[in-house]
Amino acid sequence: MMKALTTSATGLEAQQANLERISNDLANVNTDGYKKSNIEFKDLMYETVKAPGDALGAAMNSPVGVQKGLGVKVGASHKDFTQGAVKKTDYPFDLMIEGKGFFAVSLPNTGEIAYTRQGAFKLDSQARICKSDGALIEPPITVPTNAASVIVGGNGEVKAITPEGETVIGQIQLVNFVNPQGLLAIGGNYYKSTPASGTGIPTVPGENNVGTLAQGMLETSNVNVASSMIEMIGAQRAYEMNTKVMGVADKMLEATTSIVR
Q1: Fewer CB atoms inside 10 A, N or C side of the chain?
Q2: What are the C-alpha distances in Å from 165 to residues 78, 143, 160, 172?
Q3: What does the pLDDT read at residue 1?
Q4: Are strands 136-137 and 102-106 parallel, antiparallel or unpaired?
Q5: Entry pTM
Q6: What distance in Å separates the CA atoms of residue 225 and residue 259, rounded to the nearest whole number?
Q7: How many Å apart are CA 261 and CA 245, to the nearest integer?
Q8: Cβ neighbours of residue 172 under 8 Å, at least 6 residues apart?
Q9: For the residues of 78-97, what is the DSSP string, one character each?
Q10: Is the separation of the CB atoms in 44 and 10 below 8 Å?
Q11: Helix, strand, coil % in the chain, rounded to nearest 5
Q12: Distance (Å, whole) CA 122 – CA 181
């Protein structure tokens, strides 16, 4: 009877983790470039009472066995990098990746390289292209102070229109990974590479299966509210069922102890 209590307790913990994932996704439904999370469950070890194939006699083996499951655990959690919807802004430094790839930026203070799908860029006091927190795009690009406008091509080529004419001032590269699900989310819409993701491969947009850039647009969150709400209801029902199992097991234990009295 105690195994029923501990097994259902693992179910409660698993569904709590599932609900926390869903709540984080819904909280970021309006976060540009945010990618929803997926969670995978795995069953725990089994208590083998009788193994399949155990001898039943001199010339007979059991065709099946007897095993007791001991519950569930969270096996993995990873990001879903499917494309989000398009939000048109017409701001020249808003860039959207159409397809695979990440922007590379150097984080302020530490200088570490991080990766993001969120392409809302600005200009800092030195006219360098950066994120709102000061993270500079890599490789760095500086816009001339006398530029009337900036044009970013689908291939990442950045041009400035100045009184002297049109000038190429930089090239935006996208970074691709063999296993994007292996990236480590560090908050702020940033990711870091890990041994699981592999080393980032800088590529010119549009080449080697990497997406192109769209200027004046942003990629919105890929969280589907309706699907997340359905998942939330399913997690709630699963949580309730596990609490009922605990209640039934408790009543059975109570009945057993009352016999002793």
Answers
A1: C
A2: 47, 14, 8, 21
A3: 56
A4: antiparallel
A5: 0.86
A6: 51
A7: 25
A8: 95, 103, 137, 141, 152, 156, 157, 158, 205, 213
A9: EE------EEE---TTBEEE
A10: yes
A11: 25, 35, 40
A12: 28
The label of the residue with tokens 């850039």 reads 213
d(CA 17, CA 77): 10
Cα–Cα distance measured from residue 227 to residue 211, given in angstroms and rounded to the nearest whole number: 27
Burial 9-28 (b: 16+ CB within 10 A, else e): ebbbebbebbbebbeebbeb
pLDDT tens-digit profile of 57-77?
777 888 888 888 889 999 999
Asked if residues 171 and 139 have their Cβ atoms less than 8 Å apart, the reply is yes
Instruction: State the CB neighbour count (10 A cutoff) for residue 221.
Output: 21
**CA dist list (Å): 62 to 45, 46, 57, 148, 194:** 21, 18, 9, 82, 47
Residue 172 tokens read as: 């935006």
The string over 179-210, giving b where at least 16 C-beta atoms fall within 10 Å of a residue's C-beta and e elsewhere, is ebebbeeeeebbbebeeebeebeebebbeeeb
Tell me which residue has tokens 């540009």. 32
Question: In angstroms, how far is CA 152 from the centroid of its own chain?
Answer: 28
- Which residue ranges of the chain lie beneath pLDDT 70? 1, 260-261
Instruction: Specify the amino acid at residue 60.
Output: M
Q: What is the pLDDT of residue 9?
A: 92
Maximum Cα–Cα distance across the chain = 99
